[in-house]
Structures are given as C-alpha cells and as structure tokens.
Design a protein that fits this description.
Elements (H helix, E strand, L loop, with lengths): L6 E8 L7 E9 L2 E7 H7 L4 E12 L1 E6 L18 H15 L4 H16 L2 E8 L3 H8 L4 E7 L4 H12 L6 E4 L7 H13 L4 E5 L3 H9 L2 H9 L15 H7 L7 E5 L5 H10 L2 E4 L1 H7 L6 H6 L5 E2 L12 H11 L5 H15 L16 E6 L9 H10 L6 E4 L1
Parallel strand pairs: 1-4, 5-6, 6-7, 7-8, 9-10, 10-11, 11-12
Antiparallel strand pairs: 1-2, 2-3, 4-13, 13-14
Zinc ion binds next to loops.
Amino acid sequence: MVVDSIRIHTADWIVPINRPPIRRGGVAVDRGAIIATGEIPRLQQQFPTARILKHLRAVLMPALINAHIHLELSHLATLAADSPDTSFTGWITRLIDLRNQLGAQGEEAEQAALRTCLQQDRTGVGVMADIGNTGIGRQLAAVFPGQLFPFREYLGLHAQTLDKNLFRLEREPESHLCSGHAPYSTHPRLLRRLKERAVALDQVFPIHTAEPAAEGEMIRQGRGEMADFIRRRGLWDNSFVPTGRGGSIHYLRDLDLLDSRTLCIHAIHVADEEIRLMAGEGVKVCLCPGSNQFLGTGRAPVRRYLDHGILPALGTDSLASNPELSLWREMRLLAEHHPEVEPAEIVTMATLGGAAALGVDHRYGSLETGKKADFLAVPIVDGLVVDSDEQVYRFLVTRVGADPERIRD
Ligand SMILES: [Zn+2]
C-alpha cells in the first residue's frame, strides 16, 4: 500500500510573506519541503489524498530569523536587569568587568547560553546568527545543526594585537565563520583581511556598525567618548587614522568592506548619502531595537532603509544589553518606535529580511514552494477579532501570550 506522504496544514490565516495573507488557507508539505500554499479547497483538489492537519484559531507563518545574538553573554544578564544609567562606554566597562569576574567560559556561561538557545527555539526562531569570542557558539551549533550560525568575532585596534589576530585568522578552518567587532574596536587591516576571507569563502560578514553616535566622531576626528575610552584603556596607538569626513559606512566603503554579504548590525547613525551607498552595494542591515532602547544609542532610520529598497533583518543582541531576547518583542518595539512603518513590513523583516541577511532565503523567510517545512502556528488570543490582512499583521507584531507551535514536518 502506498501511503501519501503529503500533509496539508490548515489555519484561519496563512501569512506566506511573499504574497498577501490567505484567509482559511493551508500549507501543503511533503518530505520536509513546502510544495504549495493556498486556499483550502484548491489545495484539497490539488492533493486529494493528503492528510489534513487543522490548526484551530491560529496563523501560520514562517519561522523567525534572529540575525544577531551573543549567546555566550547570557550569563551576564544582570547588566540589562535594570536601567543602565551610564554611557555606552560605561556599559562596555561594566560588561568587561563582570565578564572578568564571572569568566567568559565555563559551566555557568555554557548553561546560560544553552538556555537562551532553547528559549529562542521555543519562541519560534528558525535560524540565529551568533557572535562570540569563545567556543560556546560553535559547541551549541553542533547541538542545533542548521539552526545556529556561530561567528567567531575578531577585535583589537592596537598594532600589537594585529599580527596575533592575523596569524590566528589564517589558521581558522574554512568552515568557520568569522566577523569583525566594530570599526572603533578592530584594526582596519584586520577588518580588510576578515572581509577578504569571507568573500573567498562566500560567507556572510557581520560587523557592528554605527551603534553609538561616538563611533562617527571617532572616525571623523579621532575625538569624543569612544576615542577617549580607547585612549584611557591604552589602546590608541595611531593604528586608526581619522578620516576627517563621513561616517561609519564611508569608512567601511573605503576599506572595501561593503557588498551584499556584509551585514551591518545596529546601523543607527547613518546618513542618507550612506544609505544610498549601502543600497547600491546591496549591503544588509540588522536592527536591534531592544538593545538600542536599553543602551540609549538611538533609533535606526528604518523608514529610510525601506524607502531605499533595503529590507532590514532583526536581532535581539544579547542579555547583557537587552532584558528579554524575543523577536516578538523586537517587532513590537519597532512598531511602537516607528509608527511610519507598516506591520506587514515589520513581519517581513523578522522573517525574509533575516533569511536574506544570513543567506538562507532559499530555505527560510517565506512559505513558498521548495522552502523548508519549518514554520509556526501562532495561536490567536481568545476573543480577538482578526478579520483583515492589516489586522493579521498587526496581531503578529503586537501579540503577547502563548508560544507559537513549531511545525517541522
Ligand atoms: Zn552585538
């Protein structure tokens, strides 16, 4: 007897992302892949022997993509437990001190990172991009294959650290993913080499960009809060030469770091001219509204990114700068901070934006034929009326309540 392996998951609403929401629709899957999305009668006609799996009072949507997290900082959650009441560099100092005190690695750090990983999975994150300086991310990636991309972060502005870093980088196995920390913290030659390696291996290259306003001041004039902080720590040795003009994006462009595989994380203090530059190169952006709110670093020019054809990704950043690591909360904050951005655009950022940023949009980001059968059934809160496309998107960006059901068929 031949048993039909096709299953149709049905729900009140399907939000495929690549097309408008479908009322009373279904997602047909076969052997791990989506084979069709549409209205229920049409799918039943197309696949008459398929098994029907009903998800009552639910919205089916793609799994979320968390394009920026630092799992190994999870044990430093007390840093974001109360208001920072300090500058950006004050927060970095507290972070370094607490990490020295508790240790960057070891049982506590590993257990906290694992808990965060499980919590991301439980809340509907299909793929996450983790950045770290220890081996914790890579260890966890073995436990969550295909779900966790662990980037080894390089940093060091001082010339003395350059040779050591370059030496280490040359010895990284090709399968390892690497990132540069930020323009203010990483030697320009190291950044250049990191990007060359990523290009040669066709890997994504993430870099924190224009997060504190003080980064731009340092780049232009070699002055301000960030430059002072680096000097105080004895790390300013003229390895970094102020450009006298422009911002972080100009700086990265001059180092030839910008292309469609570069992921600029935060990207808050970015001028229009720089956004045009990014759009021209196809540069990706990852917004972290929760972390930005906590650190008081400002709000990214989301509308301007969208208007220039850049669809940002979303990231939670770490528990050291964000009291809650939830992509749902990131969507909600973005909606609150940017009423000029449509809920549909925000849901698209959290799914397709992230998938494109991490180069996994052939498998994730939308409920399209050929993509992985890994999606969510989001329960609709009791008593809530969800009766139009607009309402279904608004429900998704403002929802609170039970975790979504993860469908991995
Ligand atoms: Zn970060």
